[in-house]
Amino acid sequence: MNEKINILPVPTWNRMGVNWAETRAELPKKSLPKGKKTPYANFIPQGIQRIEELPSEVAKISTGMGSNYDDYILDNADKTCFIHVNTDVKEPLVIIEQIDPSSPASRTHFGIVAERDSHLTIVQILKGDAIDGAAMSLTQILAKPGSFVRLIQIQLLGAQSRSWEAVGARVEGGAKVEVVRAVLGGRVAACGSLIELVGPKSEYTLSAAYFGHEAQYLDFNDTAVHLGTESTSDMYTSGVLADKSSKILRGTIDFRSGAVRSVGHVNENVLLLDPTARNRTAPLILCGEEQVEGQHAATLGRFDEKQLYYLCSRGLTPIQAKRLMIEARFMPVLDLLPDEDLRREILEDIERRLDHHENNPG
Amino acid sequence: MKDFNHEKTHVSEVDRSIYDIKDKVDSSFEVNSGLTSDIVSRISQEKNDPEWMRLFRLKALETYHKTPLPIWGPSLDGLNIEDIVTYVRPKTDMRTNWSDVPDYIKNTFERLGIPDAERKSLAGVGAQYDSEVVYHSIREEVAAQGVVYTDMESALTGPYAEMVRKHFMKLVPPSDHKFAALHGAVWSGGSFVYVPPGASVEIPLQSYFRLNAPGAGQFEHTLIIVDEGAYLHFIEGCSAPKYNVANLHAGCVELYVGKNARLRYSTIENWSKNMFNLNTKRAVVEEGGTIEWVSGSFGSHISYLYPMSILKGKNSRMEFTGITFAGEGQNLDTGAKVLHSAPNTTSHITTKSISRDGGVSTFRSAITVTPQASGSKSSVSCESLMLDSISRSDTIPVMDIQCDEVDIGHEAKIGRISESAIFYLMSRGLSEENARAMIVGGFAEPIAKELPLEYAVEMNNLIHLEMVGSIG
Fold first, then answer.
1. Residue B259's pLDDT band (cuts 50, 70, 90)
2. DSSP-derived pairing of the beta strands B290-297 and A217-226
């Protein structure tokens, strides 16, 4: 697929290389046959209804990955999972996508309609590995007034696979969408979210963490569009870059005319472990409304020497202290997970990757 | 209490008219509008270029034709190079005494306060009118230090010809972008400064660029070399009267800051609101050197302006302090670029922007830290103020960090004037309009204090002028 994905909402100098994702994030479209759109058949918690067809108002919700990608998944998905909730669903819907040599590619289309005042948590987990493995997903969410949708995306793929995760949401009055994202594996990992806060007092939070290592390429494009009055967005991304990994984060707050008294924040914190890692960040604020407050902040650097010294003075070895500081980057995300086993699994995954990093420096 | 309305009327009637006074166009020579190799050759011939420069211009023209317009930034739809007259020679040669400058040109610069500033607070002055420098001078005691301050044409053929050739468009090659190529093809005027090792020019030099002819372009070239351990403060000012046709400014500034040298480059840009300001400024800084940019952007219809600093030597540093005020009919895309390419380099960028009456203000930046720049630090802070909901203010920064031993901080804020602050000031007896003007003045204050005094006064006047009628 030669079309561009994760396009920066407003372009800047081409030579900075952030206007869209690098070519290595292009989709392997030609090698994959058209999907059969098989409906998801596994366990669905009580209170969630499957629906056969996604309402057109949901199917046309755009994602941060861009229309090229969205159209591709809409046309070629292997699996579909369209759900409807109109109550407070206590149990999370957990969907695990396993990549392996016998099933090296997946294209999944999720559609969620959260009715007025309903509550829902969805956990999407990507696991496994295969040569040229490819995991693709498209998640479209309609959050009606007063509803709450928490989408948790955990990517634990091996080093040979690639992943693309696109999210689009339309958030109506008083509704809230929360995206929680942890990206740990994959040769290439691309995520693109576009959240439209259309209703008054609609809310969006993004809590994301990543661990870039080996020759991994991570590409994120997260945008909050404020249309409704008093809407709020808060996007926080924390990450670690090691070895020859490379990452681009585009984080955009877009205040449209009429979004009076809206507030948006983008924050990023990057820990750089090796001189060969590369970090690119483009945090945009676009503003067409006077009565708003927008803010972004980014800090990048190595370990805080004072923190390290303190931890070592409390009895930790330098390696233990550094591990603790790396794991701490994931805590804002891990704290939001609904399941202790999942939390433990991710921590163990981080441990394994850190072991590998320490045993194979650079 | 002051009669605020009266004060603003005064500003409106006097200060804006200073910039908008049009002289009758009375050139001794001008090329046809458009851009062809014949036109470029004719400019070269008129200017008695050395042969290498003639060839340079023609090659730059080829590059111009091959280079596409930028895909980013404000629309350039209103700019048609076929309508632009790229060279207008005023009816005078360059003079070193104001009394020798023709009255109508001298009067224009008198109104802009240049000769007065020269007498009071400058070590030297260059004044360009349309395509040529009409006046240049330097104080004897500064010249006695070995400081060279002259027009580019004289430098190109004088004792510093080799130095000029060695540095001319090496920092900003014509291949850099389409308007750098255009500049390479049709440049005219500008200043050359050389500050020898250890020399310190305690009071500033200033070049002022005035574009009078409608539909014309100004393409001055400024080349400054501050040698090892030397210091210079250079001030650049520019203005033009407003016409109904597009004018174009595509100047180029190249600054070479030597080892442990320091250069402060201050600009107040107040082009008329029919101007396309596509200016390129770049500095390279050697070990321990410092470049300081102070920039105020108030004029122009469209602006693309991002001074770039290449921190080439270890421990070199840059500071950028800028303010942009975009009003009706203006789309000002401004910011800064930094390339950290040596260890322990430092950059600080502080900007403020204000948008009102449908104006569009964009802050755009690029911070690149190469793998060689370990121990480097960078901080970027930009604040934007929106004064109404028909304006726009965008912030588009990019950071590219290719080194782990760095300390990078970035913060941006966008917001409006606090209602409670207005309420407080009104409760102390100010009108709402006056309260708003005061808050905007306070917002701009950290930048104003970095400007030379007379420019800080000019900036404050401009802010007051821009605030006229800001309520309702």
1. very high
2. unpaired
